[in-house]
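User: Teach me something about this protein's shape.
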Amino acid sequence: MLTAFGQALGYPDIDPQHGLFDLGGDSLTATKLAAWAGSTFHVSVKASDVLRFQTPSSFAALIEERGAGDPAEAKENAAS
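Assistant: First, the predicted structure itself:
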């Protein structure tokens, strides 16, 4: 999750408690992160979710709460 936030914002290293807007993110970034999380973890995520759960740690908790699938497992299933 930290990697995705970092890539979307152009930072290689971010703190799990830094907020999206604190790091220079905006609504477009939130849309990108929502799309990434949805396709990677096979959960329903909206940009508004990213805006409500702005830190990487709180967003990761949301993804986990929604029953995120394992990204490695998802890649294996896609290859079959």
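Now, about its shape. Helices lie at 2-9, 27-41, 47-52, 56-65, 71-79. Residues 27-41 form the longest helix (15 residues). If you'd like, I can walk through any region in more detail.
User: That's plenty for now, thanks!
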